[in-house]
Amino acid sequence: MTTARSEFFAGVHAQLPLLLGVIPFGLIYGALAIQLGVPASLAQAISSIVFAGAAQFVSAPLVATATPGIVIVFTVFIVNLRHALYSASLAPYLERLSPAWKMLLAYLLTDEAYAMAITHYQKDGDARFKHWFFFGTGLALWVCWQISTAIGIFVGAQVPSNWSLDFALPLTFIAIVMPMFKRRSHGLTAFVAGAAATLAMGLPYKIGLVLAVGLGIFAGMIAERGEGEWKSG
Question: 53 by DSSP, 3-state: which?
Answer without folding.
Answer: helix
